[in-house]
Amino acid sequence: MNKLLMVTVLFAALLMAPSQADARDDHLYNELGGTAGIEQIVEDLLFNSIDDRRIRHHFEGVDMVRLHEKLSEQICELAGGPCVYTGDDMVKSHTGMGVTRGDFNALVEALQLAMDDNEVSVPAQNRLLARLASMYDEIVGL
Amino acid sequence: MRKLFTHSAALLLLASSGAAAAEGRLLATGGATNVEGAAGGGLVPWAVISAYTEDDEIGGTVAVSRAQVDDYRLDVTAASFSFRNRLEVSVASQIFNLENLGTELRQQVFGLKYRVAGDLIYGQLPQISAGVQYKRNTRYDLPSAVGSQRDSDWDAYIAASRVWLAGPFDRTWLANVTVRATRANQFGLLGYGGDLNDSRKLQVEAATGMFINRALAVGVEYRQKPDNLGFAEEEDAMSAFVAWFPSKNVALVGAFLDLGSIAGARSQTGYYLSLQASF
């Protein structure tokens, strides 16, 4: 019985562990300047992207207002903020776009510049980039 | 020295022109140019492909490097061509000045590196590359006199490189491990194979670095070397480096070097400088 109790406590501890990570996630949300900061970063990211001859073709005919809204939600959620991403999943929204490896990197650079311009610290930039990089396989080559 | 300056000036001109540069990869992912002409650190060839070629891009690098230790100086001129993020062809010309003897050694290195699998940053698998280097001494009297068995030879290596975008301290980190089959004496400058040992041995080379920001990295490298010649002990080499990538066209590396004992001259330490232009 004691063993069962120990196992239960261990499980409970494991289930609690992500909430600690969440506290840290919320920290990233704050470091990005909260919802307003993220919306500004995403706006700059989109302007940088359509200025970039390597990837601007991906944005032709796209509803930029909607894209700004969904991308802001997504980054806010990823950063641990109080948002819920309501857009399509990554595979669905990128299928048929033919995003190349170079395109993905160009988008990363557009985001890096946007974060520079909004004075996001290097550690916070890295944490957001690491989370976005994990979506690489759901975006590139579809 | 004047020649080095001329080369450097030409390099900077070439780099600043920036004509149709390959730019599909993130900053610094082409590495610097190692002393053998391969993309990597200063001492170690890494799994990365030179320049910034991604998808169907082609590109390349040219580089000049100098290692100055207590009794010797190495000058390297190197160039590479890269095809997609897949294949790297390189050439390097080395002049090794034995300042106390008033003579010099010369070596040429022709390299080929192929990305076999994985990616430096994305996905589950680290970037894994396989490479070969054909090396030859173009002045062989001294290597021959100290026991070298041949004036040209092949090295083969496998390298794995990986970047963690948010590693310790939420900084971006790189690690590389290279395993090389070689019987080169002092990088090949003193020939290949010797009186003590004449077969290739597996040697481990490693590098790790941390990016302070995405243009500036600090790190260390270690290169194990065989000890084939009876006339003098050969030791492993290490370096501690600072690498600066002001743009995708230029990389500048400065390092502290400890090359150990070379041809009887003990504890050879000094500096390393390397300037690379990418296009």
Automatic annotation (TrEMBL), chain A:
Annotated CDD domains: TrHb1_N (cd00454)
Coiled-coil segments on the chain, per record: none
Alphabetically ordered keywords of this record: Heme, Iron, Metal-binding, Signal, Transport
Gene3D superfamilies: Globins (1.10.490.10)
GO molecular function terms noted in the UniProt entry: heme binding; metal ion binding; oxygen binding
Residues the entry annotates as binding heme: 94
Signal peptide: 1-23
Name the record gives this protein: Group 1 truncated hemoglobin
High-level lineage: Bacteria, Pseudomonadati, Pseudomonadota, Gammaproteobacteria, Alteromonadales
Automatic annotation (TrEMBL), chain B:
Pfam families with a match to the protein in the record: DUF3034
Secretion signal, residue range per the UniProt entry: 1-21
Keywords on record: Signal
InterPro entries found in the cross-reference section: DUF3034 (IPR021393)
Organism domain of life: Bacteria
Protein name, UniProt field: DUF3034 domain-containing protein
Organism lineage string: Bacteria, Pseudomonadati, Pseudomonadota, Gammaproteobacteria, Alteromonadales
